[in-house]
Amino acid sequence: MTFAAARYQLLGMAAWLAMLVTGPLLAMDPRYTDADGDLVADAPTDPKDWVDPPVLVFAYTPVEDPSVYAKVWDGFLAHMEQTTGKRVQFFPVQSNAAQLEAMRAGRLHVAGFNTGSNPLAVNCAGFVPFAMMAAADGSYGYEMEIITYPGSGIDEIADIAGQRLAFTAPTSNSGYKAPSALLAAEYGLEAERDYAPVFSGKHDNSIIGVANRDYPAAAIANSVMRRMMARGVVQPEQIVSLYRSQTFPTTGYGHVYNLKPELADKVKEAFFTFDWEGSELAREFAESGEAQFIPITYKEHWEVVRQIDAAMGVSYDCR
């Protein structure tokens, strides 16, 4: 799906959600400024406030087995080393909260934050997203799916009533915010009252939990599920899909706001000059269709996610 088509569909969903619940979104953390109105933190104007580390630390959004993704990203990070002239270290984060805190504390310089975490990362950690994975034709995105296993007794969404439903983390768009809004608005199902929410921590954990029948149902990003099926971690016959949403933007890649501007430009160059052909990155993401990095802006591409957050009453509280 192209960005224009995805935006048209999703803005309709967000407008529908906005009629349900509204709540204020807190402004960007006071430590940052946004003089140009692009909704991300400006680089410091005083060079003494720039960071120019001898080692760039990179983290990919939390996954079930970080060691697998360290190998997947190895070729890309070698390319970033060549482009920036810096050593680059892969940081295997265990949770969205740990990833956010690492950037906020200055220990993480370049990262891929999942869809739902991007607003928190931007407003609380000074994250500046500039890239996203896309197919060769420029299309991109994933869908939120609510899944169960064969014979679970859950044949439709209404059957989730009285059951446990696995979410990933409160910051996740497809793993918590979008499905929570959907269940409440379309099916009248409220967490705690009508079903028991549990948090697995990661999409991988939720998917494996359903496949192994530990969770009766789960809300997940189907791009993660497709990659897990391609690796043989779970089998298609272990999963039954109950609901599939419209398309959302995928993981946003970027750098911390106070990275030395020349270095930040080199980091961007590394993303947009990486040769995907024959790479481990291409093999890992082939099942979900990604074949390149494309430029994005947080203000435009994450508009629908911010609207869903507003409808959910989510605040970007940095405490």
From TrEMBL:
Protein origin, superkingdom: Bacteria
Hey, what's the signal peptide range on this chain? Answer: 1-27
| SUPFAM superfamilies attached to this UniProt entry | Periplasmic binding protein-like II
Which keywords label this protein? Signal
Is the Transmembrane helix keyword given for this protein?
A: no
Name the InterPro entries on file.
Answer: PhnD (IPR005770)
Q: Which family does it belong to?
A: Belongs to the phosphate/phosphite/phosphonate binding protein family.
PANTHER family assigned: PHOSPHONATES-BINDING PERIPLASMIC PROTEIN
The name this protein goes by in its record: Phosphate/phosphite/phosphonate ABC transporter substrate-binding protein
Question: Which gene produces this protein?
Answer: phnD
